[in-house]
Specification:
Arc Repressor Mutant, subunit A, 2 domains, elongated, 12% strand, two-stranded antiparallel ribbon, two-stranded antiparallel sheet
Length: 171
Amino acid sequence: MSTGNQELIERHTANGFIDMEERDKAFAVEYITNGFKHLDAAEAVGLSRSSGLNLLRNPLVGAFIGHLQEQSNTAKLITQQFVETQYLEILPKLKGEEEVDIVDIKNGGTFKAKKFHSAEVVSVLRDLGKSSGYIAPEPGGGGGNQVFVQLNLGDLAGDDPIEVVVEANGD
């Protein structure tokens, strides 16, 4: 590859390919999404089928295709933001703020109704709190050692010291 082409590719890579022709970008995206068929990709973006091979020979288009492939290989399909967004979308339904489809077991039909799901709401809020860092994760991944403290508040009225019972329950 010539020095001029290399400099052009480096410049476009550095600025996120924003100056690249939209037609060339569209071809590259279509080329990847259709299974690397240059004829079909060219036709899909309104070019002649024969122009697909010429675009593949363009070093800048090739670099952009490589960039797209690298991005798709490193991108996570399910991110923390995706999960949190899904939780926030179902939360109003679980809280009974939005109607949901309910199945009538007797006749098999469905109808719309608002239904409060308390256990699920608590679970979603706990998960959101943990993922956001608002609620600290349970030490040891949860279910580990537990300490129960029992105070007899009736003893507060007398002159005797408060009896504290501590039971350790652990693995």
